[in-house]
Amino acid sequence: MRLIRSCCCRFLFVARLQQQRTFIQMRTVLKVVDNSGAKKVMCIQALKANKKGARLGDTIVASVKEAHPNGKVKKGKVVYGVVVRAAMQRGRCDGSEVKFDDNAVVLVDKQGQPIGTRVFGPVPHELRKKKHVKILSLAEHIA
Fold first, then answer.
1. Rg of the chain, C-alpha, whole Å
2. Can you list the positions of beta strands (E) in the chain?
3. What CATH number does residue 103 fall under?
4. Which of 9, 118, 128, 130 is the most exposed place for a label (fewest CB within 10 A)?
5. DSSP state of 93
6. Please, what is the end-to-end C-alpha distance for the chain in angstroms?
């Protein structure tokens, strides 16, 4: 009995190390990387994306879970956001792949204009193809 138990634990440990990164889907918690006032949001729905979920540059509907007390966005508000960093890898035209350590989003209004005035951290240049040039211009580093 002990032998089986230790093998199962070892298998679970190896499975966690080799965890496959997936799409951003419902109930995924994302970090907010602008100065809109929100800290963390939870994805409600991916808009105009793959049926499986959202990837880099896709727009999502999210609920604010943590927020600064004197920010523009308050806790509990439903907002739109553009995924600017995703842990799932994405292939580029030159054969290289881009993937990030975390999932991050920039909050936007219904017209797609950013709510904040600054974007922190690296942002991939694939957002240019998705017509999010304003986010690229606010970013401090383009990857």
1. 17
2. 29-32, 38-47, 59-67, 78-85, 90-91, 97-98, 104-108, 119-123, 139-142
3. 2.40.150.20
4. 9
5. T
6. 51
Q: 66: how many CB neighbours lie within 10 A of its CB? A: 13
Tokens of 33: 């990387």
Give pTM, 2 decimals.
Answer: 0.80
Q: Which residues pair with 32 in a beta bridge?
A: 105
pLDDT(11) > 50: no
- Asked whether the beta carbons of 81 and 65 are under 8 A apart, the reply is no
15-70 residue pLDDT tens: 444 566 788 889 999 999 999 999 999 999 998 766 788 888 899 999 999 999 99
Q: What share of the chain in percent tops pLDDT 70?
A: 85
Does residue 5 belong to any structural domain of this protein? Answer: no
Q: Tell which residue, 52, 53, 32, 57, has the closest CA to residue 42.
A: 32
Q: Does residue 97 lie within any of the structural domains?
A: yes
In a domain, 127, yes or no: yes
Both tokens of 45, joined, read 């729905």
